[in-house]
Write a structure and sequence with these properties.
By secondary structure, this protein is α+β, with helices and mostly antiparallel strands. It has 2 domains: 4-97 and 277-283, Roll (Membrane-bound Lytic Murein Transglycosylase D, Chain A), CATH 3.10.350.10; 102-275, Muramoyl-pentapeptide Carboxypeptidase, domain 2, CATH 3.30.1380.10. Helices cover 27% and strands 18% of the residues. It contains 8 helices and 13 strands. β10 (245-246) and β11 (249-250) form a beta hairpin.
Length: 285
């Protein structure tokens, strides 16, 4: 997943690092199963924080912290030192393949779409994280309809149907929480039907883990959730870092961005350093 900001700021003046899941040389494995990471050198500017820089380049805050041996706190941000160069891990294109996987199955707060279960595989820590956050939402609102989860990846990864991503066990499609009493699959979400309370709770708790690299969501739905979060007192600085589309215009480097085709579901990319031996080996961490 290569952000426009990375193309503009780094271009080809970066270092390529490739390793397999065990940290061995990538040439030992087929091209389709490599995780390619491009390392950009970013010089911090006034006001830069760990989360802001990570989201600008589709990197998770926890991975950016690990790459630079910085402290990471799920409940706080970290101010970067102005003028200092930081290593920014970036996946250019669609990384493909993963050796260890786990299947996300129906459970408390989790309903699956009609898609085959052979596309519900992810890296173990990614699946664990999703299950935990989705279960937390259900425990708070047990009488409301559970989340509807679509595609993750195939077992072992690789190309998945018409998707350009979903190849490395890091991506998941999740339907928006709505006020509908019963949902078996997705449909285009009308802003008035959006359960803003649950959607904000889910996004807030997921983001705080530090493992989210990117979320794609339709602008009209972003604005509805943004308005709700602002109404309950969420600081504007946090909302500006999270939402590309808010009442005061667009922030192109935010975590939650617009991409065509996301009126019926949100797309989430997760980078969990503890679950990515290939990336850690490439970074030497």
């Amino acid at each position: 997943m290569w952000s426009p900001e990375a193309e503009r700021d780094f271009g080809d003046q970066t270092q390529w690092c490739e390793a397999d899941e065990s940290g061995q040389q990538a040439s030992m494995r087929p091209r389709g199963s490599r995780q390619a990471v491009q390392i950009g050198k970013y010089v911090a500017r006034p006001g830069d924080t760990l989360r802001a820089v990570a989201y600008r380049y589709f990197c998770s805050p926890s991975l950016l912290a690990a790459a630079n041996k910085l402290p990471f706190d799920t409940g706080a941000d970290y101010a970067l030192k102005v003028g200092q160069a930081y290593s920014v891990p970036i996946a250019r294109g669609s990384p493909s393949g993963f050796s260890a996987g786990e299947q996300l199955t129906p459970g408390p707060g989790i309903q699956m779409t009609a898609s085959n279960m052979d596309r519900k595989w992810g890296r173990p820590q990614v699946v664990k994280l999703l299950r935990q956050v989705l279960t937390d939402v259900f425990r708070r609102w047990p009488q409301r309809h559970p989340a509807v989860v679509g595609s993750l990846s195939r077992a072992g990864g690789g190309r998945l149907g018409h998707h350009k991503s979903h190849r490395s066990g890091q991506d998941v499609d999740i339907g928006y929480y709505s006020h509908a009493a019963s949902v078996k699959d997705w449909a285009k979400m009308r802003p008035l039907d959006l359960d803003v309370e649950r959607n904000w709770f889910f996004l807030d708790h997921l983001e705080r883990t530090g493992h989210v690299a990117a979320i794609f969501m339709a602008p009209s739905l972003q604005r509805r959730i943004h308005a709700y979060a602002a109404s309950i007192g969420v600081p504007e600085t946090r909302l500006r870092a999270m939402f590309q589309h808010g009442p005061k215009g667009r922030d192109p480097g935010a975590l939650i961005r617009n991409k065509t085709g996301h009126r019926d579901h949100m797309h989430i990319r997760l980078w969990v350093p503890e679950d990515m031996a290939d990336v850690r080996a490439a970074l030497g961490v």
